[in-house]
Design brief:
The protein is built from six helices and 18 strands. The protein is globular, with a radius of gyration of 22 Å. The structure holds FE2/S2 (inorganic) cluster and fe (ii) ion.
């Protein structure tokens, strides 16, 4: 579904039944649009196994990943003009989950159907609604992300699977002080400048904003690879946490040339979208895109930025999965907070409040 008709869709599908430990009444990222081509995609989201696919008219559909005949995962089936055909005995289901053909049998029992879920595609992201019992249907449109359609930016992205709970990914993204220790090869830079960056944290309406400025600092490798900085730079990091995703906009200008807080500032920009969707209580999907504003060789610059971003996110995955393994090894031992944890702790509080209100 495109942005223009996102608001007018008929919500016939239902929201899956979920474990109460996830915050509900939210749109979560189910897939990047680029993942849905000519094959069904099996994916568990919030402990709900589902199959995502595109119908012949290009709409995205999501169904329970279980054939109503003998329970084969529908994600192992094939796509056809009229829908998704099960790979065992050939029942054919449309995007609403209704069986529209049983090979060799004329009458289709009314019970021959599978559960459809509410999905909506917007700005190259496929969103799925997970509602509480009070709100099985969406109470708002899915989030917009117009960086994906802004002519000044080029972007690419990917999906990572994490053997770690989703909130550890939130913690990581809300605290960029780790850049100086984890990402020295890419977007890092001087650790002490990161740890001592001016930081402002605000929160309203279930959104947390963390803004950090690092003035007169050395540009890190990713920045110098993509932009002709003259020497030291003034850097900004603007993080906006939403329950199901974060926007992290970072960049730099040559030192003392422009105000870093000016939204119209020039220089080098990296605009990251980060969809964090629980797979289960202990595993997660991490959907990311990175956009940049090339001032020369657009395709080469994008490739460099993406290559460096992949290196960066690989490093995060190693750290977060090791962190979670060790948390399991040591049980629920208490941890100590330091100054960089303010944003992450506010996000955790918001999630606790939503989970409580969903009960
Ligand atoms: S299990 Fe799907 S058609 Fe038999
Ligand atoms: Fe990181």
């Amino acid at each position: 579904m495109t942005t223009s008709n996102a608001q007018s869709m008929a919500y016939e599908a239902i929201s899956p039944t979920k474990a109460p430990s996830f915050p509900l009444d939210q749109w979560y990222v189910a897939a990047l649009s680029s993942e849905l081509k000519d094959k069904p995609l099996g994916r568990t989201l919030l402990s709900t196994p589902m199959v995502l696919f595109r119908t012949a008219d290009g709409q995205v559909a999501a169904l329970e990943d279980r054939c109503c005949h003998r329970a084969l995962p529908l994600s192992s089936g094939t796509l056809e003009e009229r829908g998704l055909r099960c790979g065992y005995h050939g029942l054919l289901f449309n995007g609403d989950g209704k069986c529209v053909e049983i090979p060799g049998q004329e009458k289709i029992p009314s019970k021959a159907k599978v559960t459809p879920y509410v999905v909506c595609e917007r700005d190259q992201i496929v969103w799925i609604w997970f509602g509480s019992q009070a709100h099985p249907q969406p109470t708002c449109a899915p989030p917009a992300y117009d960086v994906h359609s802004n002519g000044k930016y080029l972007f690419d992205g990917d999906v990572y699977h994490y053997n770690a709970p989703y909130q550890l990914i939130h913690d990581n993204l809300l605290d960029l002080s780790h850049l100086g220790y984890v990402h020295l090869r890419t977007i890092g830079g001087n650790a002490s400048i990161h740890m001592n960056a001016q930081m402002k944290v605000e929160s309203t309406d279930n959104v947390v904003r963390v803004v950090r400025h690092m003035l007169n600092s050395t540009p890190p490798p990713t920045y110098t690879a993509a932009y002709p900085f003259k020497g030291n730079v003034d850097r900004w990091q603007e993080i906006e946490f939403h329950v199901s995703h974060l926007r992290i906009w970072t960049g730099a200008v040559d030192v003392n040339t422009e105000a870093v807080e000016d939204p119209e500032r020039g220089g080098f920009h990296m605009r990251g979208f980060h969809g964090v969707t629980p797979e289960t209580e202990t595993t997660s999907h991490y959907f990311w895109t990175m956009a940049t504003n090339p001032i020369r060789d657009p395709q080469t610059t994008l490739e460099k930025v993406i290559e460096q971003t992949v290196l960066t996110f690989d490093e995060d995955k190693v750290v977060i999965e090791a962190q979670y393994q060790n948390m399991c090894r040591f049980g629920g031992r208490p941890m100590v907070d330091i100054h960089v944890d303010v944003g992450a702790n506010r996000a955790r509080k918001i999630i606790e409040q939503i989970r409580h209100s969903n009960c």
